[in-house]
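User: I'm designing a mutation panel for MBL fold metallo-hydrolase and want to avoid disrupting the core. Could you give me a predicted structure to guide residue selection? Please restate the sequence first so the numbering is unambiguous.

Assistant: Good idea. Sequence first, for numbering, then the predicted structure tokens:
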Amino acid sequence: MNIQQIRNATLTVEYGGQKFLIDPMFSKKGEFDPFLPAERDDRNPIVELPMSVDEILDGVDAVIITHTHEDHFDQAAKEQLPKDIKMFMQDEQDAELAKELGFTNIEVMEEEVGIDFNGVELTEVDGRHGHGETAKLMGNVMGIVFQHPDEKTLYLAGDTVWYEKVQENIDTYKPEVIILNGGENQFVEDGPVGPLIMGKEDIYEVYKAAPEATIIVSHMEAVNHWGLSREELKNFIKEKGIKSNVLVPDDGESYSF
């Protein structure tokens, strides 16, 4: 297994002999509007890609789009991904959007139902993109569990906060490697609306639920409404004594298991 942090939630995962591209955001720095209301109003993305799109796409067998928000499937990705590339999506609504854009090889996943892709079993699991009313407004999101007889089980949680279903997913699948979106991104309207994805305390809850797992934290410092910096998270995990369990990659950095 090789996991490379690209930028924001965009990753490549080489697993069981297949290469997956997760949540492609290919825009150049500042190419689309900020997400508002937020503390910063920089245009997005706020950093450049660490490599070319051609390099990212090299050898990719399939794309997984956990949901279709702009920072997970942007205009540049819609234009630059090959239209016949294998694409896994969470529901018919997202698939319909991709079909309208000309994509022709889409598979719609079903929660808790494994799909075999060239020997790799992919299972959709639920996530919650925020709390309360905010989560309803943000819409459906999915995580993915990867399984293969020759690999450690990988749980890609997607855009979710810590809640009972994440605990359930860990208990059910017993992942040895977990990827979390952990930038604590949030909107601010007469005070914070509440995090849309995990912050440091959520990440600590995941650690407590899976103390033997290696946790990789993605989705950091790339779009204007981020709320948790890499430096703050690194200081937190050092204080908690879990530095060897929780990895905080820079863009372009990769890990092999």
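For picking mutation sites, this is relevant: The chain has a mean pLDDT of 97. The first strand starts at residue 2 and ends at 7.
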